[in-house]
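All the exercises in this workshop are built on plain-text protein records. Sequence and backbone structure share a record, each on its own labelled line. The structure tokens are whole numbers drawn from a learned vocabulary of backbone shapes. The record below serves as our worked example for the rest of this section.
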Amino acid sequence: MAKKYGIDYALKKDATEQPPRYLVFFKGRDADVLTAAFKEFSARKLTQEQRPSIRKVLAAFRDKARQLNANRQRTKNKMQEESL
């Protein structure tokens, strides 16, 4: 997001506290650019939280497939071919 809007940022570790606290500094052309970037970032985060996890969905489908395979009837049909 920062590259898209041309925002520079810097991380600084404050080791005087336990556990250490991290400070993030942002610098942009003007305040409108910063607010637009933060709005887009927060909107994207909210939509990510609302979507279900792909791993959870796949696990549910995997369990459903196992149940369907366990309930299916197993039939073995062997046909004997005539040889010349």
